[in-house]
Structure formats: C-alpha cells, structure tokens
Sequence to fold (574 residues):
Amino acid sequence: MSGWRLTLRQAPAVRVDLRGVLPAALAGLSSAQIEQVPVGHGNALVPLGEFFTIQSGGNDDTLAFEGDLSRFDRVGWQMASGRITVNGPAGHYAGGCMTGGELLVKGHAGLLAACEMTGGQLTVEGDAGDFAASTLPGSVDGMRGGTLIVKGNAGARFGDRMRRGTALVFGNVGDFAASRMVAGTIGIGGSAGAHVGYGMRRGSVVFTTVAPPIAATFVPALVEAQVFWQLLARDLARHGGPFTQLPKRAIERHLGDLAADGRGELIVAR
Amino acid sequence: MIENGVAIDDSFAEAFPMKATRLIITAHNLTWALNAAVSATGFATSVIACGCEAGIERELGPEETPDGRPGVSVLIFSMSGKELAKQVERRVGQCVLTCPTTAVFAGIAEGEAIALGKNLRFFGDGWQISKVINGVRYWRIPVMDGEFVAQETTAVVKCVGGGNLLLLCRDTDAALAVSEAAVAAMKALPNVIMPFPGGVVRSGSKVGSKYATLSASTNDAFCPSLYGLAAKSEITPETRCVMEIVIDGLTEADVGAAMLAGMKAGIALGSAGGLLRISAGNYGGKLGPFHFHLRKLLAAGASS
Fold:
C-alpha cells in the first residue's frame, strides 16, 4: 500500500467540493475506484477522475494534490488522520472541522481555513483568507483544538469565537482579530488591524513585533505572569519564525474585553 | 558474611506496593521553592498516622523545570491512589498555594491522573483561568503576589515502600555518624526518599503488641534498654545503639539501589567507625511481595 498523488487536469468551471477525499478514505481503493469517487461540482456529483489524474506514490496514509486548487473547497474537511499536501493554493474551508492528522497547503488558502478545527495541524505557507480559525456561520464555537500555522498574512476575523487550540500568523492579520474569542491562543507575528479582541471573553493573543491598537475596554495588567508566560512562550517558540525568541522577551499585558467576560489578555512582547 | 568488620545478616527487607506521585515545585528562587517543599513534605514520616510518606527527592536547576525557575522535586507515597489524591490536594493547597511565588507541576507524565490544581482552582473565586498548552491544562489562580500556576493533574504510579536497613552500632555517636553517611549516600540517588526525620528512625517496630488495639509496637529485640530483660534480644554488650533507615522508591530496583548505597556507605566506615552489624526488618516474608536480601544486594553490587 502507498499514498496517492492527484494531479489537476484543468481548472474546473465552477467550484468543487472535495469533502470525503481523505487519505484514510482512499487507502483501501484502487486507482480506478478513486477515479469514481463522487465529488460535488456546482449542483452535480462528478467523478474525481474528471478533475485529477491519479497515481500512487508517497508514504502510506498520505495524499498529495498537484496544481492550483483555489477552486477546490473543503480540502481535508473533517480529516481525522494521515497527511494531505497541496502543492499550490487551496480553496475555502481548507482543514475545516479537522480532528487529527496534518494538512499542508503550500500556497494560499481561501476563506474559513481551519474553521471549527478540533485537532491536528493545518499549515498554510501562503496567506489565509478571512475567518481563518473561526466558526461556521451560525455555530457558537470556532476553532476548538489543534494548531493552525499561517506563514503569510491572514484576513479579517482571524480566530472569531475560537475556544481552544493554537492559531499563529507569521505576518499581518486584518480587522477584528480574536473577536468574540472564548479561549485558546493566537499569535501574531506582524501587525493587526482595528478592533483586536473585540468582545473576547478569555484566551491569549500574543503580538511578537508590532503592538496593536488597544481598545478602551482593555486595562493594562500590573503583573507580568512570568510562570504562565514561560510555559506559553516555550510552546510557541517551537513553531519558529517570529515566535522563536519569545521565551527571552519581557511582556506587557492588557486584560479584557471588559465589555464581555474580561478575562482575556493581549500580550505584547517588548 | 563480614565486610570491613561489619557483619551482614542473612536477612532481607520486606517491602510493600504503594502508590506515588512526583511534584515539581518551582519558585522565584530556590529558597522559596524549598520553603514550599519542606512544608508540603512535613509530617509525612509514616502512612500509619500521616496519610502519606513524603520527602524531597532533589533540587532542580532553572534549565530542568517547565517554567525556567529553580525548583524542587518532591515524592509523595501513599497506600492507595484515593488517599494519595487527598494528601496531594491538602498539602499542595495548604503548603504550595500559600507559599510566595511558587508554581506546581506534575513530575510524572504516565499513569492514572489525580487532581493537582483541578480543585484548588476554586480558590480563584471565578477569577481563575484555565490554559491548555501543548495538550496540558494549567490553572492560573490570582493571588496577592501575582498568580499561582498549577498543572491540572499529576500522574500516579505503582511503587515500592518500606525498604529498610537496621544499623547496629557501638554507641550513639557512631550510630548517628553511620546513619547520616548512609542517608547522604542514598539521597544522591533518584526516585527514592527516606521519609523519617533526617532520613533516620530510632523507633523501629515489630508486628503486633500485647495491647489488642495496637498493630505494631516497639522492636524490643533491638532495644538496648531491654537487654537481658526481653526474652529475645539482638543486642550485645558491643551493640548498644540501633538506627533504622526506611526507603520508599518508585521501583523495586530504585529501593534496592538505595539500600546498596546505604550499606556501602556504612561498610566504608566499618567497625572502626562503630558499625558492627547490618540487618533488615521483615515479617517472615509473607506480607510484602518485595524482598531485598542484604547479601544478594551486596553480591550484585560487587559484580556490577
């Protein structure tokens, strides 16, 4: 047994829904069977072989996509195990509702990347769109566990309603980062837009480089919380990039959002 | 068997299964970590009335602790996981939570989890914050010097309690010198504690008593004041002071290694230092599953 390599034939006319195309689901199938796996294409179901040429290759329990998948949504949707690599950009909902395994997107990701993720790791080497690590429309909780790493920039509403887990952006984030955050950890290596932590109840947002504009509903903390900071900083440091030096840096904290529960904190490394 | 003038009894120490956990207590500096650790392991010499047997395993440098501060590792032993959980909660709650600048972490990862900060968090009166970092939950409890950070749980492992050595010496000075040397040698080893004051107990006990309510009473055969009075005595006119060292360890091998180190330290002082005989306490081998034969330990120590 080995993994599978799916190479895009040509960009589809309308968006394709790749839910169900997971390493574990394809593991026991032949390439002919995989070609017949139905995927949503607009309002029709179309065999996977219409879009991709299918070859075996790579390690067990792996799946690699080659080509520009920016019109392919829900890559790694509800993935529980294995490893998916997208050698190019991915569409919306990449890694949404993941519970385990690893998803690596070597290009940009669309909207709602890692939304409602509960476990595993999604790494986006390019930029992520709006609502990464956040919630599906209508849900109470956003990301609930696991790790999201965005090595480029992220859009607005990063970590909206996030409850647990770690979501890191090496670059900048848009407006309303960590809005309505319930708990968990967000790290931002670049600058943040307006309204950081809007309505956040608990959770930690770490800024490694640029202090964000801080709303009047946050209060400066008098105490550094050194023990907690060392535990957190050492964990974030292993993700590299702008987080590497965090354990050696002093911090200032701002507590809020007092308009909500007020037990969250914005942590600015000095 | 005689080593450097010291008679080694053909006897064995009989030890029992217990439950243990290790806690890492850190603080702003070593002084305050030690203050907390000494306090938390106080009144913990014997499970008979203390509920647990506890001691300081060793001091930890800043590079060895989860938060990069100086710390102390502490071992706590009890007869059951339930009693251990009760003791951990009381001792951490009263002695570590209260001690300036401290934080507390689990020192053992694998095993059944018992509460560490899980219930102490309610001291925070709603201001406490939970934080999951790399899959481990911590509680941050606001206190008057900042915040007290405690890992949610610690792990319980099966272990071995009640390894022991009886050191029969010429007089009080010799007995103290020999037992101090033996305890110092054992303290250099990991995974063991000697729970009695200074590691040494002078009130060794035998099973049973003339009083029906007592399950253990003074070891009259080793009491020099009963020489010539007790029906059976191990005391001779030359051996007039006896000390016992009790060892609790995480594994059978750890207890054996500590007993060997203690014996070697005693033998090094030898009969010239006042140590005349080494024996060990047992109950005929029927009660405890772990038997540490003194001569076998020495033979294994000599061959390795």
